[in-house]
Write a structure and sequence with these properties.
The chain has helices at 37-45, 60-67, 88-93, 96-99, 118-126, 140-144, 182-187, 199-208, 227-244; strands spanning 4-9, 29-30, 33-34, 50-56, 76-82, 104-108, 111-113, 131-137, 147-152, 155-161, 170-178, 212-216, 221-223. The protein is α/β, with parallel strands linked by helices. It has a 7-stranded mixed β-sheet with strand order 5-4-1-6-11-8-12. The longest helix has 18 residues, at 227-244.
Length: 245
């Protein structure tokens, strides 16, 4: 069974206005490349050739124009448009026909890591988990604005969204390995108080079924969701790119 890839590149980028008034957030530069190039490279590192790009109506044409068929990247792109924001699970649900019976990796388009996804993909393909999350050891302040996991080894004990007092600094980054049965789980979700479906609820479902596993990043993780993170992502990527030369 072939692993497929999904990139979530929707949303209006409201925390990055006025930059995003005239450009899709995922086309903003991270050092010397558009932001969306990084998740493409991450999926390619896992050997994935079939990638679905899910975008909103907000400057969607610019994404199609930039990426095209995927020929220039050595992959094949498929596109779906999310008409309105509804949360990460709602966006992932648009991938059901594309994924079919395959396992897949979903990446939030503003997440950047600098290590190959291959070992994580191999572990997920061979294991019994139906969802695998990646964890980054962050600071307490970073944990307060993220989903966090309490783990014992690779066993996930608890997942919490944006805790005021984080019980751990294990940040759940926006890269999720999932089985195709996630689409049935998503269909049963109810919107939260903010009117959107929450990825934490999907994680909790698999946690209760004892089908949720975790793996730890060895290197850096960058998120480019607001101005501070965007600036930091540019500076850190520049630094890391110069080290590689």
């Amino acid at each position: 069974m072939v692993l497929k890839g999904v990139i979530l590149a929707g949303g209006t980028g409201s925390r990055l206005k006025p930059l995003t008034n005239s450009i899709n957030k995922h086309l903003l530069p991270i050092y010397n490349k558009p932001m969306i190039y990084y998740p493409i490279e991450m999926l390619k590192s896992a050997g994935i050739k079939n990638i679905l790009v899910i975008t909103g109506t907000h400057h969607a044409g610019a994404i199609f124009q930039l990426l095209g068929s995927g020929k220039d990247f050595g992959v094949k792109f498929t596109y779906r448009v999310q008409d309105e924001a509804g949360g990460i699970p709602s966006a992932i649900s648009l991938a059901e026909d594309f994924v079919g019976e395959n396992k897949f990796i979903s990446i939030n388009g503003d997440n950047i890591i600098f290590e190959t996804l291959k070992p994580f993909a191999d572990k997920f393909e061979k294991g019994n988990a139906e969802m695998q999350i990646l964890l980054y050891k962050g600071t307490k302040e970073e944990a307060k604005k993220s989903g966090v996991a309490v783990v014992e080894g690779e066993k996930v004990m608890q997942v919490i969204e944006k805790p005021a007092e984080p019980p751990s600094n294990n940040i759940i980054i926006g890269i999720y390995f999932m089985n195709s049965n996630v689409f049935e789980v998503i269909k049963k979700l109810k919107p939260s108080g903010r009117g959107e479906t929450e990825i934490t609820e999907v994680q909790r479902h698999y946690l209760e079924q004892r089908k949720l596993s975790a793996a730890n990043l060895k290197g850096n993780w960058l998120d480019a969701g607001d101005f501070e993170d965007l600036l930091n992502a540019n500076l850190e990527t520049k630094k890391l790119s110069k080290k590689e030369k």
